[in-house]
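Support reply, case 0932

Customer input (verbatim):
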Amino acid sequence: MQDTRYMDAWIHVPLCKKGDKLYHYTTAEGIRGIVENREFMATKSDFLNDKLEFQYALEVMERLTEKYIVNESLRERFFSKLKAEIDSLGIITPSCSVDGNCDTDEMSFYVVAFSKQQNNALLWAEFTDFKGYCLEFDYETLVKGFQNRVFLHGTVIYDEEEQTNGLLESLLSCIRNLVDEGAKDLEGFFEEEADPSEASLDKLADEMAVVCSVYAMFFKKSFFEGEEEYRFVFPPLINKLETNKPKFRLLDQMFLPYIMVEFEGGKENVPLESVMVGAKNNSDITVRGMKYFLRTQGIDIPVLLSDIPLRY
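Our regenerated output:
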């Protein structure tokens, strides 16, 4: 079995490997934009379906400190510094009030969501009401197509034990690194007698704030594990040709902000390998219409109808 590849030595977010396929559930309008304009819609992180998007990692980190840092005073000092540094980075979305009052525009991030699952009933229902399309992509070619942008990508982690272990390994790595650099008072950090200096705690909080902020992009509660999501995360402003001003789409009378992410790849088409039509979209012309549309774009790939046996 091939070893799991991670984002880096400190951030254990699993990556796909060569040959893997990713699936994107979208509408007819969505697939037309992807094929004709070579663009993907990336939704602002705090407008995704999970209310705790980009926040949940801080909850996991707090529970980790309560479990492993036995010195109560040290635990409170460290977590307070960590929270303050995370807030200053502005990557983890702060909680908003009931009236929607929150300031999240300074460091917004945008997400293009894929799944590792094709023909997934949960995703059909959530994104298309079984009337849209499931697009199959080659993972490696997708990544290459975004290389002109700044972005992160990886598998969303839903298991809290795996989330905790990842953060704990990062915390241990940060401590070892700082001890090697001279912060000897961080040795025995998890012991009752531990009493590191404010300067050492500040350094540790600074490093872990970055780690937590990256993990936050890829942690979700287990309620969502059926999605098996693999996501691409983009900051809003990348180059001079783009604007920081988001666009808005309407969903059930709501305004949802997004940006368009262009797929680069020379004259090649997007790495689309198949299209599956939702089970409710079963008119005799749906598959034929999609095949004809793709052929006009120079794309000859299988177009299938979902075999999920829906009555209505």
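We compared this against your earlier run and they match. Two observations from our side: Confidence is low (pLDDT under 50) at residues 95-100. The first helix runs from residue 28 to 37. Please reopen the case if you see a mismatch on your end.
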